[in-house]
Design brief:
33% helix, alpha+beta, 107 residues, single chain, globular
Length: 107
């Protein structure tokens, strides 16, 4: 398993690390910047939605075996509902790939 650390050219490094591999993606919501998504734990130095979108654009170029989203709460502690629209936009490149016939090896 390759680990791609924070820093410059993360998308390029992710592409190199995953080149030629099938991928299964587990996304924990608490890896995002604090305040972006209601999760039990908030990460002060987390990913932005732009960072997440960049990673999912890279991963969408691979054979995606599956996608799991964890650490997602329906509401903030103060009762405000979680609004997943920006999260959904960020993961859309992979979601579309999973939903396509090509992703399942069909014509």
């Amino acid at each position: 398993i390759a680990v791609v650390a924070e820093g410059a050219e993360r998308g390029h490094r992710l592409r190199q690390a995953s080149k030629g591999r099938r991928v299964y993606i587990q996304l924990d919501g608490d890896v995002l910047e604090a305040g972006l998504l209601a999760t039990e734990y908030q990460s002060l130095d987390g990913l932005s939605y732009a960072d997440l979108r960049e990673a999912f654009e890279v991963l969408a170029d691979h054979e995606v075996l599956g996608l799991e989203i964890a650490e997602y709460e329906a509401a903030w502690l103060d009762g405000r509902p979680n609004q997943p629209e920006r999260l959904m936009d960020a993961i859309m490149p992979v979601a579309q790939r999973i939903g396509s016939h090509q992703a399942w090896g069909r014509d």
